[in-house]
Amino acid sequence: DGGITQSPKYLFRKEGQNVTLSCEQNLNHDAMYWYRQDPGQGLRLIYYSQIVNDFQKGDIAEGYSVSREKKESFPLTVTSAQKNPTAFYLCASSIEPHSNQPQHFGDGTRLSIL
Amino acid sequence: DAKTTQPPSMDCAEGRAANLPCNHSTISGNEYVYWYRQIHSQGPQYIIHGLKNNETNEMASLIITEDRKSSTLILPHATLRDTAVYYCIVVRDYKLSFGAGTTVTVRA
Asked: Are the CB atoms for A71 and A79 separated by under 8 Å?
C-alpha cells in the first residue's frame, strides 16, 4: 500500500545527543514536510521540501536540520541545540508544493529526553 | 491564514449522522477549508476539502455556506472508529496549522 512511514515510533535522546527521525514515502509526492505537535499548541512547521535537493525553513527550524537527497526520503535531525525536543514529530507529503492538494501524514515519532 | 472556531466536544450515537460545525468568518477568497481527524497517538488523517461548492467523498460530506463563513462536516453513519479529534482548518498555501479541534465521541 502507498503511504508514509515514520520510524522509530518512540525515540529517547540523552542530553547533548543528536538524533535522526526517518520519513519515507512511496506516493511519488514532490513535497514533504516536518511538523512538531505539542499539547495545547497544535501543529507547527519545522522544515519543508518542494523538490529533491531543496528545502526551506518553517516557523521553528532552530535546532533542527534536514536533507532531501532522494524523492522518497526526508530525514529530520534533532540536534543538541534544540533545547526542548520532547514532542510528537509528524512527517507529511503532498503531490506538489504550494497547491491545494492535501497533505498526508505518517503516524509520527514520539521523542523524549532521558 | 484565517482562524477557525469549533466546539470543543460533541457526542454522537453509533449509526447516526454526525454534523460537525466550523466557523471561519475571516476566510479570504482563495483559501480552502480542510478537515482532518486525529486518533490518539496517530498521525492526522485527511478527510475532505473544498473551496466554494459542497463536496462528498467516501468518508464524509462537506457543506460550505454561500458566504463561505462557515462549514459543516457530515459523517453520514458514525461508527465507534470515528471517535477522534476533528480539525477544521483554512489553508491558502502549504502551511497547516491545527487548533484545538472538536473531540468527537461516538457511543454505542
From this structure: no
Torsions phi, psi for B71 (to 5 deg):
-150, 165
pLDDT along chain B (108 residues), means of 10: 87 97 91 93 94 95 96 97 95 78 96
Amino acid at residue number A32: M
Residue-wise pLDDT for A65-109, tens only, equals: 999 999 999 999 999 888 899 999 999 999 987 778 899 999 999
**Residue among A41, A103, A110, A111 with most chain B CBs within 10 A, to mutate:** A103
Query: At residue A64, what is the residue type?
Result: Y
The sheet that has B102-107: what strands, in order across it? B9-13, B102-107, B84-91, B32-38, B45-50
Sheet-wide strand order for B18-23 = B18-23, B70-75, B61-64, B55-56
- Taking the alpha carbons at both ends of chain A, their separation in whole angstroms is 35
CB contact under 8 A, A103 and B96: yes
